[in-house]
Fold:
Amino acid sequence: MRTSQSQKVAWTFLIVLSLTALLAPWLPLADFRAMDPDARLTPPQWTSAPFLGTDAQGRDLLARVLWGARISLAVGFFGTLVAMLIGIPYGALAGFLGGRWDRLQMRFADALESIPMVVFVLFLLSILQEYRADLAVVGFGRLQLFFVAVGVLFWLPTARVARAEALRLRKQPFVQAAEASGMKSLGILWRHILPNMMPALRVMLLLTVPRVILMEAFLSFLGLGVEPPAVSWGGLASDGLAAMNPLVDSAWLMLVPSLALGLTLLALQKVANRAAD
Structure:
């Protein structure tokens, strides 16, 4: 299949954004944490610094958007990886075994899916706050909490897709031949079921990444995201909304991070749609 022009644009945007975010510490950017009261709410200059303006504390918005991309993309990709590592074996096992095990596992998944997302995140935040010192010893902070929260919240759709694929594949002749030859269930699952469900799961992975990034932005917008001085696109949009008032034109504070988020989600969705085709 030929790659369309929009696909090339989407891939180019994602590659450039990922590389820029990854190399942000070494790029000639202003310190995203440095405050300058004399430069607060400077509008975008476009051709000279500050290119995208400054926020209400005088911090460079371009640097903050690129550093925010590091957090948003990291949560999206690593959170999706956690969801895949949990959901694929769980769903594949349920679909392959079938019967009582399948019903039991899916009812447990239904029970978890009924828990409101915000309530679950607040529960994890309360645990983090209570045992902050102990968790800090092993390097577990708010960012790592997001990886766990995303893994627990987003493995459920992945498990359902894996289960559906396992139910389909277990009826295939090559699986029945493996069973007739005396191969153990674990071997069939590992050698025949999992490899053949990868195309569908690859599409699921690409569809999950933008959902995870959007969830992180939503939680950060509500103030449940990463803690300062770390930044993410949702937190920047929230700060921009708080700085807006009828007397001062500062729409760029909300527009810039929202545009970065929207273009990234659009590009990821475009790539996922191509993989699904």
Summary: The chain has one domain: 5-276.
